[in-house]
Write a structure and sequence with these properties.
The protein is an alpha+beta fold. It has a domain of 71 residues: 434 Repressor (Amino-terminal Domain). The chain contains 14 helices and 19 strands. Helix 7 links the parallel strand 10 and strand 11. Helix 2 packs across helix 3 and helix 7 packs across helix 13. It is elongated, with a radius of gyration of 25 Å.
């Protein structure tokens, strides 16, 4: 245990493990670093925490980083607010620290990351009001939570994690309305929204934010623009060319949940063509992510699903374009300097990131990084 600024911090040490990997004795390491062998012994035994200069010297000799040798031991329990409690099967959760509160997001359920079995950040304790944090607090405090449904958010997450330091960006799937609602309620740092232009030319993203974040200052900044439409089987065997074909008796759809931008797009297009929702076979059959919809088409559960061109290409499906939409990030003003948020904003301003984003099927980046509105 080390004591810093009147606060006890639990620090674990891997010096012996790393020294042994280098086939180096305590005396040899001590000589190269310029300290006594007894000091190396005490450090490995957990009785002594060296100063910064000694720690840096040992890292240089061992060919690693200081944080590879010394790290804050996880395991401290914290008060948490469980989000999506109805989906909290088991204790494994992601943790997002927003301002001074810890929010626990279940790793199962319709809005979890369904494509992989992600590692948990914490384990809920009985009663579900506290959780044992499995990560160093510095890592939790420096990781921002981005909610949204643009698949390219995962690219941004990877790029943030590659930056020096502890900044991180956790990405979880959510509909545009759910994402903005949770940022407005202080449960996430960033929301992604891609609501299409409403009747009368009103910008869909601006309209949604004006409704959900009336008393919160912040920015709306462009992230990407992409094609939305219908995912259909390879070769388009049903000959679907638009939403009117969804009313045919031989065509079935898998829809998105209320609050999803694609659901709003479909409803508006049906209304324009005077097609009642009851005429669509599968209108009430829901997919809760782009991937779920694509898989339903791929496995012949339905004939069409709502999604993006990039998703269609990824899953080997054909694509029927319906709209082109801008996806924006919504960020409250007081969270702009959060390490994870700041890193994400820096990255989307770079040419390298815009070039990578533009390589995704159906994407373009002419507005990426531009401030759309100040809230």
């Amino acid at each position: 245990m080390a004591k810093t600024s009147n606060r006890t911090v639990s620090v674990s040490c891997r010096l012996k493990e790393l020294r042994t990997q280098k086939k180096m004795t305590q005396s040899e390491l001590a000589g190269l670093v310029g300290i006594k062998r007894q000091a190396v012994y005490d450090i490995e035994a957990g009785r002594y925490l060296p100063n910064t200069g000694v720690a840096l010297a040992m890292a240089q000799v061992l060919g690693c980083r200081v944080e590879d040798i010394f790290y804050q031991a996880p395991g401290q329990a914290r008060d948490v607010v469980l989000v999506d409690q109805e989906h909290a099967w088991g204790p494994r959760v992601n943790i997002a620290k927003v301002r001074d509160r810890h929010f626990a997001y279940p790793l199962v359920g319709t809005h979890a990351r369904m494509e992989d079995m992600g590692a948990a950040d914490a384990l809920l304790e009985p009663g579900q009001t506290r959780a044992k944090i499995l990560l160093p607090e510095e890592r939790v405090s420096s990781t921002a939570l981005l909610l949204g449904c643009d698949p390219a958010f995962s690219v941004l997450g990877h790029r943030v994690r590659e930056t020096p330091g502890h900044a991180g960006l956790m990405v979880r799937f959510a509909s545009s309305q759910m994402a903005v609602t949770r940022v407005a309620s202080g449960q996430a740092h960033i929301a992604g929204t891609h609501m299409h232009t409403r009747g009368g030319g009103n910008d869909g993203n601006k309209f949604l934010v004006s409704q959900k974040m009336k008393d919160i200052s912040g920015i709306l900044i462009a992230f990407s623009a992409f094609e939305e439409g219908l995912l259909v089987a390879p070769g388009n065997p049903k000959g679907i060319i638009g939403v009117a074909d969804l009313a045919r008796s031989d065509v079935s759809l898998i829809n998105r949940e209320e609050g999803a931008a694609l659901r709003s797009l479909l409803d508006d297009l049906l209304q324009e063509k005077n097609i009642p929702a009851t005429a669509i076979q599968g209108y009430d059959y829901l997919a809760y992510s782009h991937a779920q919809g694509a898989q339903a088409v791929r496995h012949h559960v339905c004939d069409a699903a709502l999604g993006l061109r990039a998703v269609a290409v990824t899953h080997g499906l054909d694509f029927i374009p319906l709209s082109h939409v801008r996806c924006d990030l919504v960020i409250p003003s007081d969270l702009m300097t959060h390490p994870g948020v700041a890193a994400a904003l820096d990255i989307i301003q770079t040419r390298a990131f815009r070039e990578e984003l533009a390589c995704l099927p159906g994407y373009e980046t002419s507005d990426t990084g531009r401030i759309i509105a100040e809230l």
